[in-house]
Every structure is written in structure tokens, then in C-alpha cells.
Amino acid sequence: MFSKYFLPLIQKPLVTADRLSPDKGKMFEAYGTKAFPNSGFGAGCPIAPSPSRNAAGSEKAYDGGIGVAASMVIGQSRGKDGGLTSGLGGQGIPSPVVDLCAGHMGAYAREVDDSGRPISYNPNFMVDAAHITAWALENPDEIMQLPDGSIGERRMTSAVGLSADNINIQAKGEGGIKIAASSTNRNSQGQKNLGNPGIDLLVGDGESQQPVVLGRNLLELLAGMAKEQDDIRGTLEQFVRLQGNFNDKLIDHKHGSPFWGSQTAPSFEVMYEGFKQTFQRVADVETGMIFTIINKETGGSNYFNPVSKKYILSGLVTTG
Question: Helix %, strand %, coil % for the chain, to 5?
Fold first, then answer.
């Protein structure tokens, strides 16, 4: 028996009758998967909703088969909500676009509404499962609802947008991967570029962004700080030695007595404190300085040595 404080986790079905066309929905509701023998096996047509597109007059679409909610569309750009009158293309401004989508409407995909009327989808970066779009002219940050970041909002520009639960980029050859923010002489609108753009790596709302550290400059700074540490330690070591010599003389210090100028015995209180500080100077101060040398050299060997596993510079990734 389940407690009122506990609800069992039930796996969400891949498809339900209300998400299919009326005919398929009735068959699925009455007989389940038995009504669709061998459906989907061998990469065949599965039991899944495949909504139709709310198509515009300028669009040429290459749709997937039955049960495959995927397409490639060439046409004019649409805006944030994907409606026919949104975005630059919806305003009559020439904005050629190539739009690839796998998983129209994402988890909300269905062919009919609750009243059984057919549903048509609009392209939507927030809802579609995986989406790639190339715009000749658009406001890409507005459509993808991205924060401004340090670069700011990009408007009236060509752009490529990618959106999915996860994005993988793999270079299988030895050429590697280049992510470049390097201006050409002129942009896609023929306007002269006046400076190099930046690169924003955004997390969340982008409000907590900070500049990326340049590794070689950081290494140079840390090496300078390590040298300053050596200089300070050397100065302290010289002071400890000079102070130690003075303390040794003070321990053995004697005064002349009024009895024919003969010397008195040393002060036992001074001798006690003197011998104690001598021991502590050797045990704590001088030993501590030796260990700082060892620790510094060990740290330098671990983090400043290019062949070390903990070397602070990446051998394969650079920025600038």
C-alpha cells in the first residue's frame, strides 16, 4: 500500500490515443499495439503522432514519412512563435531560411486537439525536440530567447541557430575544431565590419559572466609571484639570522659589578627565554622556511611543468 506522501514513478507512454489521428486513435484505444502489427520494426513507420505543418506559400518542405515528425523546409523566416505573420519573413522582409527539425512540437506532439480537429504546428525553438536553422536575415537572439550576454543582442543579421537537449560536436580527423569570431571585411549585408566580435559562453541568464583567463599570461603572473615569494623569504631568512645573532649575544650578556669591576652572572630569566626562542626559531621559523621552499618547488613542478599531469595550460585548447 502506498503512503500518501509517496507517489510511484510511472513511465510515460511513448504515445497515447488522443495524440493520434481519429482513426488511429480509435484503433489504438480499442486494441493497443495489436492494431498495428510490426509497426516501427526495422526502422519502419512507428505508432507516433506526425502533425502537419502550418505551411506558408513560399515554403518548400521535405517531410518525413508517416509517424516521423521531422522535416527540412526552405522558405522565409518566421519569428519567435513561428507564426505566419511573425519575424522578418512574416513582415514581408526578404529573409531566406533553411530549417531542419527533428521532433516537431517535442513532447507535445499530437495530430488532433481534444475536439478531434487536426493540429498544424509552427516551428518553435523552445518546443521542438531538435532544431537547426540558417537565417539570411533575422533577429536570432529574439527567436531563440537568448540573454544579451556581453556581446549584446544581435539584430538584423545572418545567423545559424542550434537547439536540442544535448549538442555534440566531434572532430574525427586530425584537423581539430575551430570556433572563430574573426570578422571578414564586410558582413552579409555588405556593411563594413569595424571590429572583431567576441565569444559568449552563456549559462542560465548570462548575468554572472566573467572574462576567460589567458593561460600564458596567468603563468607569467604566477611565476612572478613565486619569485616575489622567494625574495620575501630570503629577506625574512636574513632577518632571522641577524636577530638570532643578537639574541645569542643577549643571552650571554653580563654586567660589571661594583666589586672591582668583576662581571656578574647572566640573567637567568633572559637565558631561559633566550634558549626557548632559539629552539623555537630553529624548530618553527627556519624549518617552516625550508618547507616553503620544498612546497613551492613541488607546486612549480606539478603545475608549471608542461609534462606534468597537473600542468595548468591545456595542450589542445586555446583562446585569445
Answer: 35, 15, 55
SS3 assignment, position 159: strand
Compute the average pLDDT of residues 204-223: 81
Residue 209 grid cell: 559572466
Spatial CB neighbours of 98, under 8 Å, sequence gap ≥ 6:
72, 73, 74, 133, 134
Structure confidence at residue 170 (pLDDT): 92
Beta bridge partners of 133: 99, 161
**Which grid cell sits at 177?**
575544431
> Are the C-beta atoms of residues 104 and 65 closer than 8 Å to each other?
no
Is 42 a residue whose pLDDT tops 80? no
The count of domains in the chain is 2
Provide the pairing of β-strand 130-138 with 157-164. antiparallel
Instruction: For residue 232, give its domain range.
Output: 215-303
d(CA 315, CA 203): 25
Residue 27 within a domain = no
Residue where one domain finishes, among candidates 164, 195, 228? 164
